[in-house]
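Bench log, entry 3. Co-assembly request; chain sequences pasted below exactly as received.
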Amino acid sequence: MALLGRFLSPRITKIIGSQARQLSTSSSRQNVDRPQFPGSRSEYSTKLEFIKPDDFKGIPVYRVMNAKGEILPGGLDPKLDKETVQKMYHSMTLLNTMDRILYESQRQGRISFYMTNYGEEGTHIGSAAACDPQDVVFGQYREAGVMMWRGFTLDQFMNQCYGNCEDIGKGRQMPVHYGSKDLNFVTISSTLATQMPQAAGSAYALKRAGKKLCVICYFGEGAASEGDAHAAFNFAATLECPIIFFCRNNGYAISTPTSDQYRGDGIASRGAGYGMDTIRVDGNDVFGVYNATKAAREMCVKEMRPVLIEAMTYRIGHHSTSDDSSTYRKKGEIMSWDDQSPIHRLRNYMENQGWWSDEQESAWKEKSKKKVMEAFARAEKRKKPNPEMLFTDVYDEMPPRIQKQMEFMKSHCTQFKEHYPFDDHVPMT
Amino acid sequence: MSWKFLRCLQNARFLKKNLETSLSVHRCVSVQYVPDTISAAHGETTRMNLVQAINNALDIALSTDPSAVLFGEDVAFGGVFRCSVELKDRYGRDRVFNTPLSEQGIVAFGIGVAAMGSTAIAEIQFADYIFPAFDQVVIPRGPHQAKGLLLSCIRDQNPCIFFEPKILYRSAIEEVPSGDYTIPIGQAEILLEGDDVTLIGYGTQIHVLREVANMAQEKFDVSCEVIDLRTILPWDEETVINSVKKTGRCIISHEAPITMGVAAEIAATIQDECFLNLEAPVMRICGYDTPFPHVFEAFYLPDKWRCLEAVKKIVNYG
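Structure output for the full assembly:
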């Protein structure tokens, strides 16, 4: 055992150790036959019995605060100070204001695309606040609040959506595909769930680098149906990666309700199957999300293993500006969720504490709207990047073949310049 | 970031005991492997087959870069082709390890490792299984190249797919420099100089083309220039174009199916760049547009006779 133990992590040794003990105890009893299959650890049974999903009660939804913003009996108040709670509220509402303005700007054709975060602001802010700012974030596309919390500026959001010359991403991706190396937020890409096994790999690298950090990987319940989600869960568990898988279960994947997405008990019920500690949390309760994420983070970093959090919430807005959700759900359904929104709930809590008033609310609304509008105007005025940027960063250095294509583009566009939108762009060299 | 992908071949798991056999043992078509000549500048050399050269390159990569990790299906015990033999014992189970059986997982996990600035060497057991994302594609023709190109791939700043011709794993044996060295990515190599026809290929097919060049000289008194592409993407246009401008005739050959194969891209570029120099249409001698067959392999492959017939046609064109 000692020799074997040298090559195994303490956790695996423990499991094997306990199995070995069980085996020796049972063999000392008379004729007790135990399965020796390497692929499982359990006992024999002569009962022909299938495990039924209905045999298990659904995994409960953890929360600490009700819709009135009251800490429930037995609920753990994280006792965040006034300043932190106000920052949470500011971030959630500023995101909400930015969403409204950018959504409208897409309707007016000023940006090509947008996705709002309505109803899910609590999952973003609660989880982001519980993480270390150095923890690495991999997201799907509806996690702008995490960046907002970490300090991505309104100008940076707007520059990306406009794809202007100040955009960190050089205007190459569609709107809301944010990323920031400074804020440890890995750039969003459209293909669903591909970030999940990547996040596991990054968590493995962080572990090897001896950093006391974790990765938090966000995804929707629809993306969890992808093969990549399976790969990610299994890799993270077998390779013991410090990663929080954070599922936003908002009831819909575009038009597809969860009843068409899965038949098990949501995403959380899959966690144990992969050998991961799992919790389901009320995604509209920012403190519930905060507590769950904080505890998960501690397990990740201390014990070097993955944890799964499923945050139950509701997608109040349309899927995107290319979607009209009234074609597949009733208005009343949305209204009932609007009242329960994480923003209302946190405001109630703050008012209960005497930390917020109607005056503060209207002053903040005014101020935040002004800030958003100013950033919006600045972003709109900026030129688009130099068209040569189309060819850079494909490789770290431009191969001759691409160089040639760039030269062709330049000479062609100069020759036919009246047909190309040069005025919108920073001039070519 | 680097990827190491392997190319599939029937029965490759069950190779015969005798390591120094000709390639015909494992294939219906006989190919003569010609060892590379190593310049004295490289210093001390060791006789290695392609597997040993790969293993040696990985060993050097792991020893010179503490962030480098090697992973994939069955890598820990040495790999089903023995390319990672002894590396786990030498560098520890956190650096050389098995993953669950999932190609999408392996590649994405590698991207994640690399995103943190570490070096990820991912192995895909059979190349037939995956093409999820690639920037650079590199294929060596023998042990000496395999080691130098693989080390370049591992150290390159771009994601890279490295295809290992499994037929050459044990059959290609030559002197390989013992130390640390690299062969540049993106550069083709002129193996044989010639004036009449340019023959272009990569991997195992290079050995076919070299033999074709010899046969063409003997039988038709035709002088062929043989170019090993080595890097498929981004490929060395300049070397190819200069050669075709000189010879005026070009045959491109690869095992993969003809439609939308690498040869199509090269042929289109040649007609674009060398139109006035061409004295015959660019010819492609490739696999047929069918799945790779079992018992019909000898009929499927673009062997030396098919290539030789092409040489005959191209010099008699018009």
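Residues 389-419 of chain A form one domain. The CA atoms of residues 116 and 275 of chain A lie 34 Å apart.
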